[in-house]
């Protein structure tokens, strides 16, 4: 909004650590975070070493909150 | 190049039996149907091009046509026309979101669904997404889609191209998923809402009817494909088409060395002040066939309409990666199969409500430049230099001397400019941004409609980034206004050069914009008495934007930055002249290795001056390029000596 004081700190996506090892490379570097890919938004658990997706849950709306979507 | 095992067998490795089992038809049939999908998209767009009234559709070609596959395949983008690529990346997700929210069970034959909300379908509110379901045997088997820029969609500024818009409420009419035609009849309630809240309804209304009929044509052509080849082959061909582009992109990603690559670029301002920088940061992590593009570290969403959504970020990532790695495969949603984009919500590249999203294409341009910079090292000789950086958009409005209103949007700025050089050759001098392959309207089309005369369009010497292959040259463009008017100017990348050189090439020169203000004219002043400034004349010009010498107003990299937003509206009298100089494109390769004969030709063509040939390329040319261009002489011995000296000075 126009009247807000600008927040000058950069914005980043938070990555939540997930316990366990990657089923592809074996490294214990799994993180959960939203990604945008073929098929739209997903909550993905990905290995930070080899980028293998351990799981990908579709998230139709994605992280942006739209007020009128509650009418669906 | 990859050091991670490639696991998936390629499409070409499948036997014919395996191929038929997977796609329900043979390779030949799938190829025919894939091409036919692209033909359908082209056909409906040709129809729209011929019949639309809006100049931004008919002349600028700011639209795209597409075929999106069925819900059971998760709405894949199967085919597109050679339209504006800025729409491509969000079509699949946009159609999925719109149909899901409207309710797929409510759709009937002859319906035309629309949505223009940037947070649902990407792009900006002017870019209306029209979606027609294609039924076969009572089942939706595809969607025919046209995404087309509407000349106006309401909001506080005609046409919408202004950074004065500070939130979604000032930006323009937001239309969530709803029908604009039901069973081929207009939904009059929605039509009234649109026409009562927008300008230029006499253009919008007939174009809505035209778009409906174009989509209906697309539906008939798709149904014809199904009748000829069968529904299983039709659906199989959509899967094949997306799988083929996924495989092509996968192979392209694998050609990059594994690693983490970072880059960034920024726009000058969001129009409020110059205190806050709007930067896009990119980190590309590549492992084997997988690519993750993380935009964390980017600036927060802006205070004005300088914002893009995550869907726009996804489009820009695809276009940048295709540009450098996989330029020839058809664009489908399959290219994202192995690319994850990580977008921070609330950033200038991933804005959320109530932020206004209008100049998303400027942020996309910055993102593409950041990706080109990040990939310079791993690409080596395949690196691509930076382009001119900003559309520098102009909107003007006012009253003609006879009292009638005039309006012009996106045609009197410097929207097209210089591209960076590549290993294949010099950069183009005058193309759209990588996201905007639109067409510049002709002078003959603009001048009868707008009270302006386009005085100059010419290239300026020594503005291109030097290189073995040089960048494109900056364009100088001047327009004389024949009526008083208010002007909205949005030049966003003059503070630093955007045309980054690669592979030892030099940067292109940063440009600027100026208004030669006429304080004394009135409606009776003859046009012949107006000042027509020559390209080297800066006397008395008001600097709109650029880094300039504050005394002379000339471009000076060591000078001061003039901030365009100090005047939200530039109110100018009849007789004023608007000047643009675009940024130059970046060079590729060491300029001392450029063919001296190519430099002589550049001097002949006035892309390079005699002094620039010597200073930037170590090439000694003599003569008079203006009056005797074919008489220029190239001194090869002196060139060799000079290049040896310049090489020695580098150490």
Task: Throw out a few tags for this protein.
heterodimer; A: mainly beta; globular; disordered N terminus; B: 651 residues; alpha+beta; seven-stranded antiparallel beta sheet; six-stranded antiparallel beta sheet; 23 strands
Unreliable stretches covering 5 or more consecutive residues of chain A: 1-5
The averaged pLDDT of chain A comes out at 90
Number of helical runs of chain B? 16
Main sheet attributes: strand count, strand direction, barrel closure of chain B: 7 strands, antiparallel
Strand content of chain B: 15-25%
Strands ordered across the widest β-sheet of chain A: 1-2-3-4
Structural class of chain A comes to mainly beta
Concise description?
The complex is a heterodimer of chains A (72) and B (651). Chain A has strands at residues 16-18, 30-37, 40-47, 53-58.
Describe what this molecule looks like in 3D:
- The complex is a heterodimer of chains A (72) and B (651).
- Chain A is an all-beta fold.
- Chain A has no helices and four strands.
- Chain A has a four-stranded antiparallel beta sheet, with no helix packed on it.
- The model of chain A is unreliable at 1-5 (pLDDT under 50).
- Chain B has 651 residues and is an alpha+beta fold.
- Chain B has helices spanning 16-23, 27-51, 55-58, 91-102, 118-121, 168-171, 188-197, 201-229, 231-254, 310-325, 360-374, 376-379, 443-446, 596-604, 610-617, 636-650, and strands spanning 63-68, 77-80, 112-115, 127-136, 139-149, 178-182, 185-186, 259-267, 278-287, 290-294, 339-342, 393-399, 405-409, 452-459, 475-481, 485-490, 512-516, 542-548, 560-562, 570-572, 577-581, 621-622, 633-634.
- In chain B, the strands form five sheets. Chain B has a seven-stranded antiparallel beta sheet, with helices on both faces.
- In chain B, helix 8 (201-229) packs across helix 9 and helix 10 (310-325) crosses helix 11 (360-374).
- The model of chain B is unreliable at 1-7 (pLDDT under 50).
- Chains A and B meet through strand 2 and strand 3 of A and helix 4, strand 9, strand 10, helix 10 and strand 11 of B.
